[in-house]
Specification:
28% of the residues lie in helices and 25% in strands. By secondary structure, the chain is an alpha/beta fold.
Length: 246
């Protein structure tokens, strides 16, 4: 049977693929960041199909998709690689996963296959299993892969998982804008494209609010001071809280 396509239904505001050689810690990471029960084994090829899960980052749901272990020859369909690369092509960004103490050439094989497939997405490297490694291992990996930002992560260290999630958020290129009304701030922010203005935020809430919006009060990175009153064309930034003035 020709299995050249596997569909992963998109959910959340962005789809980020976890990519790496077999046994690079992808399943454990996905499991730690979501509440999906995933078969995890400490041996290659435990996961045979892409597994998708939602994780909440600063109040916004982002979809993580674990792409099963890519190997050299994936473009020639070794290990069912062609269909897996097809899933990867539909993602918004890539997190390469690499056991921080594993040989670096395994990661290079994976990256070569992605490049051969002509896939060029915003990317970072998650150095997994940091609880079994040292800062020296991390520095060696960073030196071997100088062109990618590297984040060390351990599934038993909540701080490292939080830092990893923030790095994933940066990778999406989106910005989070919180809404304030009646002195209350919503827990769930809007996810906006960079360069969004107050009018874009208002329109996303409701078309009519967009039409009647005269400006806003802003707290956060784009405001010169808390509660600054700004016009409709003011550009918002990640982490802003906005109160629309209609």
């Amino acid at each position: 049977i020709q299995r050249d396509s596997i569909a992963v239904r998109r959910e959340g505001v962005a789809q980020v693929a976890l990519v790496g050689a077999p046994n690079a810690g992808k399943s454990s990471l996905l499991h730690a960041l979501s509440h999906v029960q995933i078969k995890i084994g400490d041996y290659a090829f435990t996961t045979l199909r892409p597994v998708a899960a939602l994780t909440r980052i600063g109040g916004v749901l982002v979809q993580l998709v674990e792409i099963p272990g890519l190997i050299a020859g994936a473009n020639e369909d070794r290990g069912g690689g062609r269909a897996l690369l097809g899933v990867l092509r539909g993602a918004d960004a890539i997190v390469y996963c690499q056991d921080v103490r594993a040989p670096h050439d395994m990661l290079q094989d994976v990256r070569n296959e992605v490049a051969l497939a002509g896939i060029d997405l915003p990317s970072m490297l998650a150095a997994t299993k940091m609880d079994e490694a040292s800062e020296r291992d991390l520095a060696a990996l960073q030196a071997a892969i100088p062109d990618l930002p590297v984040v060390g992560v351990s599934i038993i260290d909540d701080e490292s998982l939080a830092a990893f999630k923030e790095a994933v958020w940066k990778l999406t290129g989106l910005i989070r804008v919180y809404l304030r009304h009646n002195k209350q701030v919503d827990d769930e922010p809007l996810a906006m494209q960079p360069g969004a203005t107050i009018i874009d935020v208002a329109t996303k809430v409701h078309k009519e609010i967009g039409a009647t919006c005269r400006g806003a009060r802003v707290w956060g990175p784009s405001a010169r001071f808390d509660g600054q009153q700004v016009g409709r064309d003011h550009h918002v930034q990640d982490g802003d809280t906005v109160e629309i003035i209609a």
